[in-house]
Amino acid sequence: MDVIVDLQYGDCGKGKVAHYLTDKRTYTHVLRYNGGCNAGHTIFHKGTKFVTHHIPAGVFFGVTSIIGSGCVLDPDQFFRELRMLEKGGVRTRGKIFIAENTHVITEAHKEEDKRKGGRIGTTGRGNGPAYRDKYGRTGVRAKEVRRLRPYLIDMYAKWYSGKPVTILAEGAQGFGLDIDWGDYPFVTSSHCTTAGALLNGLPASAVRNVWGVAKIYETYVGSKKFQPAGDVFTKIGDIGEEFGATTGRRRQCNWMNMQTLERAIRINGVTHLVFNKMDVLREVREWALIDRSKVKKFSNEKDLKEFVVRRLKPLGLAKNRIYFSEHKDRI
Ligand code: IMP
Ligand code: MG
């Protein structure tokens, strides 16, 4: 299993990396391992923009896609997405499955989240209440929902059928939103780390590469104050089109924080790292990051890149495993 994890607050471009890795067609399965339809994955496929919430990127290449037991699923949203993909020319038949022990987001969950989620600034998609009921042992599992029946699988049977499986595990949200490691209570209700992937019936020894995804600046959407004063952050948000794929809310922006990144790299066991949106800072013509609580400015892109590479070396990340990306549709 290769794992894709977001090292910041979501929206770093996991969808793009998943799309890139799946394009090589070396995986038998793509697994969404946490989160619900709070996630918004923007994927550019053959020149068309798709936004998915539940369904993993593997489906764009006909790879079997599984919504794992670490997720919570809104059946209405699931069927809407299937229709959207089919309409966009993506074949989904026989390619998308839901683990039978995945928990379901109900109407009551969504209604409660919309009513009470404001303090945290949730997406209002019922995520928190669904996980609460799962752990409170009052939840509903996918296998109890009749119309989901054609899509259900037993993950144990899939993983241990005797046939070789090669899995791309695609996380949702990000390290800064993780229930344990994020900035609680301004977090989501699931496990967004590599460990979260293992909760879907897989042993630790299954993990091969861990692709960490970050942006060269940070964004966060939710109720806490995140963006410092300064026109540059508004400019980054405008040029970077930093609006939520799920709710359309404006994302707050800040420079990349090296301490957060370092924690995320270690805790996730990152082996490959992609920094997205280099093109945005290039257009803004300012380069900076935060290290040891101080803003560090650079006069050009090259100096910033060199600093980052040097800074990450002691974490075991060699230069040839760090990618600086400046394209929407490729690494
Ligand atoms: P919830 O996951 O809807 O409960 O929202 C909790 C926090 O996580 C809020 O700050 C949301 O904006 C944030 N969040 C949830 N999903 C995503 C995502 O996919 N990308 C970015 N932020 C997210
Ligand atoms: Mg997103």
Give a topology summary.
Elements: E1 2-6, H1 14-23, E2 29-32, E3 41-45, E4 48-52, E5 64-67, E6 72-73, H2 75-87, E7 96-99, E8 103-104, H3 107-116, H4 127-135, E9 152-153, H5 155-159, E10 167-170, H6 194-198, E11 210-215, E12 217-220, H7 231-239, E13 252-257, H8 258-268, E14 272-276, H9 278-284, E15 287-291, E16 294-298, H10 301-312, E17 322-324
Parallel strand pairs: 1-10, 1-11, 2-5, 2-10, 5-7, 6-8, 7-9, 11-14, 13-15, 14-17
Antiparallel strand pairs: 3-4, 12-13, 15-16
Helix pairs in contact: 3-4, 7-9
This protein binds inosinic acid and magnesium ion.
Magnesium ion (MG) binds at residues 10-11, 39-41, 245.
Put the structure in a nutshell.
By secondary structure, the protein is of the alpha/beta class. Helix content is 27%, strand content 21%. It is globular, with a radius of gyration of 19 Å.
What do you see in this structure?
With 331 residues, the chain is α/β, with parallel strands linked by helices. The protein is 27% helix and 21% strand. It is built from ten helices and 17 strands. The strands form four sheets. The chain has a nine-stranded parallel β-sheet, sandwiched between helices. Strand 15 and strand 16 form a beta hairpin. The mean pLDDT is 95. Inosinic acid binds at residues 9-11, 38-40, 120-123, 125, 127-128, 172-173, 177, 186, 188-189, 221-222.
